[in-house]
Amino acid sequence: MKVVALSGGIGGAKLALGLMHALGPRELTVVANTADDFEHLGLLVCPDLDTLLYTLGGRADAERGWGRAGESWGCMAALAELGGPDWFQLGDRDLATHLLRTSRLRAGETLTAVMSDLAARFGIAATLLPMSDDPVRTRLKTAQGWMEFQPWFVGRRAEPAVTALDFAGAEAARPSDAVLAALADTELGAVVLCPSNPFISIDPMLAMPWLRAALHGCRAPVIAVSPIIAGQAVKGPTARMLAGFGLEVSATAVARHYGERLSGYVVDSQDAAAAAALAPLPVRATRTLMVSLDDRIALAREVLDMARSIGPRR
Ligand code: FO1
Q1: CA pair distance 92, 287, nearest whole angstrom
Q2: Are 133 and 110 in contact (CB under 8 A)?
Q3: Structural domain boundaries of the chain?
Q4: What is the residue-wise DSSP string for 149-215?
Q5: Which of 42, 122, 147, 211 is buried deepest, with most CB atoms within 10 A?
Q6: pLDDT at 102 > cutoff 80
Q7: Is the pLDDT score of 272 beyond 80?
Q8: Are 97 and 67 in contact (CB under 8 A)?
Q9: What residue owns the CA closest to ligand 1's atom 25?
Q10: Largest distance between two CA atoms of the chain
Q11: CATH number assigned to the domain covering 2-141+167-310
């Protein structure tokens, strides 16, 4: 069964790894949000793509979720000594990714091509794709004005509260041919919306009219996994953002946000009541907290089983 997973960083990467094991890597295409990307110290940083690259490649730091395992921070220490910006931590090994990627992009390669090569170097047999080779950048409106994503998320620890979002460049951005081909594949069995932040990880992809149209046109069922468990986000600002937008902090509210796009929804067992609230949308309740690799594979199997039972959309 072929699957396309739309993913942000840490939470999405956990399920993507489970899907890779449950399906077999060649069946899986992961499309990563790139609206968190930014230029820092002259380098293009792609947090969600790299979290997926390191997670699927078995090189992720399990504690932090982002960056590489066994990291050293010599360059950051030297940079701070020189008075350089150290609010955004780039480890020495991670820097190698950034140096190589940026130089290859400057030489004219696409982000898709560079990431495909890096994934192959890490022995990843699944397909890892940026959502687009065109730049899309999340900007957040706060009481202190508009802010760029990483200065807000990392620099200000996701403060102040967000009142509106803008995905600059999304209207004109074209998903790569590889993304469009994956969604147009007649053998596609499911599109999975990973348990990522709906507002800042999944919405930037859906903000691209080309991707929206491709998703609308594909017959595979679209199954989302809730990033909210019992009124709380496992990690990150999803719960605070829901509350800030005046929405209920619940798995149900996330499904309503995705609306008609969903063919099925997977929630945590603690949120089984969402099924009645969302009827007639098929809802499956299971353990969605992914601590171990077995948790990730078990959740992936539930998602795939649900997709099979729903079958193609008419
Ligand atoms: N997150 C942090 O909280 N602090 C950091 O210093 C930081 C550095 C960093 C470097 C490379 C990278 O790929 C990711 C990094 N992240 C860091 C995580 C990242 O910025 C966010 O988790 C995502 O953008 C949100 O999806």
Answers
A1: 36
A2: yes
A3: 2-141+167-310
A4: HHIIIIITTT-S-EEEEEEETTTT----HHHHHHHH-TTEEEEEE-SS-IIIIIHHHHTSHHHHHHH
A5: 211
A6: yes
A7: yes
A8: no
A9: 9
A10: 61
A11: 3.40.50.10680
The C-alpha atoms of residue 134 and residue 144 are separated, in whole angstroms, by 29
Site residues for ligand 1, CB cut-off 6 Å: 8-9, 36, 45, 47-48, 50, 66-67, 88-90, 94, 150, 153-154
User: Mind giving me the DSSP string for 114-154?
Assistant: HHHHHHHHTT--SEEEES-SS--EEEEEETTEEEEHHIIII
230, 48 Cβ separation under 8 angstroms: no
Nearest CA to ligand 1 atom 20: 47
How close is the Cα of 131 to the center of ligand 1, in Å? 18
CA–centroid distance, 223 to ligand 1, in Å, is 27
Share of the chain above pLDDT 70, in %: 100
CA distance 97 to 205: 24
pLDDT tens-place string over residues 246-255? 999 999 999 9
* Atom number in ligand 1 closest to CA 200: 26
310: exposed, middle or buried (Cβ count in 10 Å: 0-12, 13-18, 19+): middle
pLDDT digits (tens, 9 = 90+) for 153-167: 999 999 999 999 999
Distance separating alpha carbons of residues 132 and 142, to the nearest angstrom: 27
Interval between CA 236 and ligand 1 midpoint (Å): 11
Q: Return the half-sphere exposure (C-beta side, CA atoms, 13 A cut-off) of residue 303.
A: 36
